[in-house]
Input
Amino acid sequence: MNIKYLSILFIAGVITACTHKNTEDTAIDQLLSRMTLEEKIGQMNQLNYEGNSQELDKRIKAGEIGSLLNVVDPVEGNRLQKIAVEESRLGIPLIIGRDVIHGFKTIFPIPLGQAASFNPQIVEKGARIAATEARSVGIHWTFAPMLDISRDARWGRIAESLGEDPYLASVLGAAMVKGFQTDSLSNPTAIAACVKHFVGYGAGEGGRDYNSTNIPPHLMRNVYLRPFESAIHAGAATVMTSFNDNDGVPSSGNTYLLRNVLRDEWKFDGFVVSDWASITEMIAHGFAQDDKQAAEIASNAGLDMEMVSGAYAKYLPELVRDGKVSDKVIDEAVRHILRIKYRLGLFDHPYADTQAPSASYAEESLATAKEAAIQSAILLKNANHLLPLNKNGKIAVIGPMADAPHEQLGTWVFDSEKERSLTPIKALQTMYPEVKYRYEPALAYSRDSNKSAFSKARAAAQQSDVAVVFLGEESILSGEAHCLANIDLVGVQSDLLREVKSTGKPVVLVIMAGRPLTIEKDLPYADAVLYNFHPGTMGGPAIWDLLFGNANPSGKLPVTFVRHVGQIPLYYNHNNTGRPAPDRAASLNDIPVEAEQTSLGNTSHYLDYGKNPLFPFGYGLSYTTFEYSNLQLSAPSIQEGEPLTIQATVANIGNVDGTEVVQLYVQDVVGSIARPVKELKGFSRVSLKAGEAKVVEFTLTSDDLAFWGRDRVRKAEPGDFNVWVGGDSNAPLKTTFTLVE
Ligand code: BGC
Output
């Protein structure tokens, strides 16, 4: 225990009638009252750790630094912490942050993959394992979950997202927060979560990173803010502002979002951190003229801690003295930061236990990572029941992703070791030594354009009963600043697939990628397609378990797969427009040569690519078949506050056991603003033995029907609602009910 702080706690402790929260507030107020302005501003300053230096030690000792990011050596972390705790005047511990996005050592599928599981329990477990591994080396804080609704596969960061749907992202985001933080931040294996990027970052123009967004107020409320609100209510300790400007206002200077929404409406009491230099980037945005003004705007807007750019440290003292930033603004920011340090128990336990046995790669963690990878894989095609494969046949294993230990981990894996990755080839060798296979990578990596080894791949396929072709994206092709205008399979991978298919052998295409790729033109050359968003450490074993039928695919798409990049944005929960396209809309070839300006039905669609995606949101096949029937409501109408029960029967009518993600969609037919054609309102993973049927039940209340309407108030509006239950967002089983006044 830090001695200087002990007295403060003692004073707080004697107020025995106080609640825990009061104790916390008292302790923080006491500490604040002893801090100089410079020490307060020091707490608002986060630096990137760039190796040890006397200058850094000196600044920590002087109380000029509240947080460091990217210290991962626990011995060095403890040394720096010791300076803060024992050598600085007030002994306030550092909070050490790191991007622990989908695992620390044991890597889980990228968040987009985890979202495909539609399973909050496995998502929570993944975050729990990541937190335990990270905290064991002295990391207190992760910059996750990323809750940016992502409807543009060109954007590299779609990989880090939980997909296109606000409900799914809300449920899974809250689960991640819970996994990182547990019920109490004081748990010695907890780390503080940071929900990011607040807000709208996924809607950047043209899918280009850092770009401007133009999200109007209703859409902001009904889509983009929702997962954040859910995560804040789940207790997320911190929030990170985003890089984009929305309608001209950069998030790091957005008072409305940071004060009115986050604090006043949502009662958030943790702290807000900027993104990397996003405060001083307001100069490039044309929103601040220099670092000093940027610091003034951001601090007054309610941004508590500055990541790396140093404008707070440099200019806030002067801005306060000049009356441009009030003491109250500073005190509030520091209070928020100290509160999270306090809740994390850093004043009592500032150090990592370097003697403890390693928490990394525990057998149970690897098993959970494998299960997560299994549940995240999506079966997109399975012609003639090619899958599952017979282990007795001879397999040609082809492609650059079959043995790419680094690539299968995906983006944001600073701390993983590729040597720990079980690639499909490694998994085949260790788990299935009896299987006869020939491996021909044919390409050295996904972008490789050298076709000289195609003939070997061809020969391997010819000698085998089936070819399994592993294609996709290297991990560096998605993630921050890795956007693409063309999202076809990169390089000559499509040619490789065609080459293999031309042997006449059955072909299984296994994709590992960071985004939904445009694979329509590849589908005819694959009899079966198993899509994996980069699956992590245990990708190999998970994939073979699925291919050999030891596990049955159950993943569902958390994003719409477009046929052509030009269809973007295309998402299931769009508005209907005044001219929705019919199923058979006019196409390019319907137009006579030299046609006059004439009506082709004049509906909302493309003449060349129509209106439909390649695969809809929520889609995913199984080795068995699920049949839905008997959709029933507890009442034809409900009043506000009354629950409505929705039931449907789901039957496994195939020959193998399986798990189905049963999805509930609702449409508010008429609203004070136009409402989406349907919205996901519930989902449930249901396991069914072959031949088994179960009744699945969902309960909705009027609150689940609420939205921000014309009067800018969140409420449910009376009227008719359509309801669908099924296995994807095109589920046909439909009924209706009415919400009466
Ligand atoms: C990213 C954040 C990340 C931060 C710290 C930024 O470039 O946008 O998501 O948490 O760096 O590494």
In short: Confidence is low (pLDDT under 50) at residues 1-18.
